Amino acid sequence: MMAGMGGWRGATRRVSAVYFALALGGILGALWVAHRFHLGAAATAASLLPTLAPLFLSWVTFRSGAERAAEQPLEDIAEHLAQAVRNQWETEVQVRRVNDPYPMTVRWRAAPDDLVESWPLLQATAGDWPGELGSVSEEWANSPAELEGSGAEITRVFTERVPTRRLLVLGGPGAGKTVLLSRLVLGLLHRRMTSAAGPHTSAVPVLFPLATWNPTRQDLYAWMAERLASDYPTLAEPAPKRYGQIDRARGLLGRRLILPVLDGFDEIPTPLRAAALSAINEALPMGHPVVLSSRVGEYREVLYPHFGLPARLAGAAGIELRPLDAEDVAAYLRRDAGAGGYAADRWGPVAAQLGTATPLGEALRTPLMLFLARAIYNPRPGESSHGLPSPGELCDTSRFSTRVAVARHLFSAFIAAAYRSHPRYPCPWTPQQAQRTFVFLARYLHRVHNATPDLAWWQLRRAVRRSIPAMVTQAMCLFLSVVFMAIGFMIAPDADNRIWALLVGPILGVFAGIVLAVPGWLAFDEEPRRPASGMRWAPNWPGAALAVATTVLLVAPARLPLASAVTVGLGVCIAFGLGVTSADTAVAVGPVALWSRDRRVFWTLTLGVAASAGLGPWILLVLSRVDAAGQAAVLAGALWLGLTIAFTRTAWGSFSAAKFHLASRHRIPRNLMAFLADAHQHRGVLRQVGAVYQFRHIDLQRHLARAGDDG
Questions:
Q1: For residue 620, what are the domain limits?
Q2: Residues 343 and 305 in one domain
Q3: Phi then psi for 155, rounded to 5 degrees?
Q4: What is the pTM (predicted TM-score) of this model?
């Protein structure tokens, strides 16, 4: 993988070097030819030389895109994906401090019989499957009771104990379902890598958060393919031609090289859950392994509805997560505080109520509540416990009379605890700033995105009125039109038809404005533009039309040589033909990396368009001895054209416009990406799922959204 990256970077450097050499050589050659011969033909030849660089760049980007599409078979792509998924979840487990100070033991038992298929039916179903799928294994559990286990045993339970390899994971709010699924994913990847039969013999487990899926709008395969392309951008590229006209994500799904681990069935809106289960069964029929997690009550409601037909995950066994053991919780909290010290002793009153029917005893039975309690009351490394709130306050039943009251207090105090000052690690944001930002983001997700957990930076422009960022594009197009008018006045001063000469600039300006304003407006339509990670050759008819119009208008009224006018038109055509593409590496792209790549493409596209559209006209003006002001106007116009095109073809421009607007109103920090990365890596407030952030738990997001509504 790293070798491939090094080769790609080396190729990029070589292309850049050739591009620079051609551009420099073209400019110097143009000036020499013009000075040496003093001829119109020479001027024409001189003006053509600078086009070598953009032509070479467009050819290379076109060829590289075509070659990448035909490089790897899907089995090799699956291998790269497996490595990416493993790296992603190993990093996420570390960031979430799942193993700090040690992994909390999560235990489970067989799910209630009324929620799953009968065991004899599962055995008979699996035994009747054709081929190797129907091979009866001695490892199969003889009854649901043998599914009981804890921790890392989940991998063996799924692969060996469940005959159908279709598993339902049930548990209450904050019971640790997602953490258990991440352990399952890592366990399956390890087993896949160490399998004697080789890694190609098993599918790659991928965790899909179901909250963003609407089964009435997208079938499961289409949604999973979209999610794969978002989290692993190279999977959006076309699959090799022998697999048909599909992208890599659909190719992997179609060849069953993906094992879906579907997380958060309960986060699908209630009216859609029955349709979702039916769609899952249709897309992943018997014989296709699958894992589905849900809260118990929400799954039971679908199985036993008051109205409508019941639905269930066909052919699935089930497990239910158990509450944490009271002794394990007490030992964990004391160990995290520093066993044997003052901070650990402060947990004495709390330990006395663990495992009881008190509000505190009922609340501290899940990994989520345990995480919040340790974050609020335990000192961090290098921090003193003096000045921290006492965990004994949780025992006050006059303040916390119910389990819900305890949970609400822990949610409310968590942000301030995560951002409290530390003597060694100063934080750029105060607890008040962090609280205000997270409340705004939670409300934004609930009101604008229908309570989805996915916080995608490129969709932030939907947090502001559509007219605000769209006005930015309109202003850019208006300015560009004015610049085109000025250029037209300068290049046609000696035309015989003065009226026609004066119309050259306005016509070009209006045409350019229309060509750019329409995609600019569409850039802020309902679906935000996806981030870009590279450039490619993507010609379009509006750009070609503008190039033809430019050539005709310059030849007829301005009496420029035909080749000179073609030079200008060709530069405009190339400028509009530069497009964007997705990532080149089969790795999980995090939000910050994706933002950084999109920003780089923005500026590369800006400069590439400016060079393609501006060098030719600038050389013509130099040879025509137009004054410095005219030359500067041409270069400024080319640069502004580049900015406008980049603004409409990448996500960074609209994101920046929305970010600055929201920051000016003190809704979010000015350096939002640094804030989000810090909240994920150092505060534990956010988690990273592929290319998006999410709040650490959906209940934390809901609490913050309600806090915003109350405030």
A1: 465-650
A2: no
A3: -65, -45
A4: 0.79
Residue where a domain terminates, one of 650, 668, 687: 650
- Segment 282-299 mean pLDDT: 95
Q: Do 295 and 355 sit in the same domain of this protein?
A: no
Give the separation between CA 14 and CA 377, rounded to whole angstroms. Answer: 55
Q: What share of the chain is helix, strand, coil (3-state, %, to 5)?
A: 65, 5, 30
Q: In the structure encoding, which two tokens stand for residue 621, read together?
A: 């003006």
Percent of the chain's residues with pLDDT above 90: 46
Non-local CB neighbours of 162 within 8 Å, separated by 6+ positions: 122, 140, 141, 147, 317
Mark 602-626 as b/e (b = at least 16 C-beta within 10 Å). bebbbebbbbbbbbbbbbbbbbbeb
Give tens-digit pLDDT for 451-506. 889 999 999 988 887 666 566 656 666 665 566 666 555 555 554 544 555 555 55
Please provide the average confidence, as pLDDT, over all residues in the chain: 79
Q: Is the pLDDT of residue 309 over 50?
A: yes
The yes-or-no verdict on residue 12 having pLDDT over 50 is no
Q: Residue 302 sits in a domain of what CATH number?
A: 3.40.50
Looking at residue 1, its pLDDT comes to 39
Residues near 617 by beta carbon (within 8 Å), at least 6 away in sequence: 487, 491, 568, 571, 634, 638
Query: Do 191 and 280 belong together in one domain?
Result: yes
Query: Looking at residue 364, what is its pLDDT?
Result: 96
Q: Is 136 exposed, middle or buried (0-12, 13-18, 19+ CB in 10 A)?
A: exposed
3-state secondary structure of 262: strand
pLDDT value of position 488: 57
Nearest to 333 by CA among 277, 291, 394: 394
Tokens of 356: 């009881």
Both 243 and 343 in one domain: the answer is no
Predicted confidence at residue 646, as pLDDT, reads: 82
CA angle 400-403-406, nearest 5°? 50
Question: Measured between alpha carbons, how far is 558 from 621 in angstroms, rounded to an integer?
Answer: 13
Shared domain check, 275 and 345: no
Q: Does some domain include residue 29?
A: no
Structural domain includes residue 157: yes
Residue 348 C-alpha from the chain's centroid: 44
First to last CA, the chain: 49
Q: Residue 201: pLDDT above 90?
A: no
Contact 325, 176 (CB under 8 A): no
Same domain, 199 and 264: yes
CA distance 183 to 157: 12
| Residue 691 is assigned to a structural domain of this protein | no
Classify residue 672: in a domain, yes or no.
no
pLDDT band, very low/low/confident/very high, at 555 (cuts 50, 70, 90): very low
Number of structural domains the chain divides into: 3
Instruction: With a cut of 50, say whether residue 664 has pLDDT above it.
Output: yes
- d(CA 72, CA 78) in angstroms, rounded, equals 10
Number of residues written out for the chain: 711
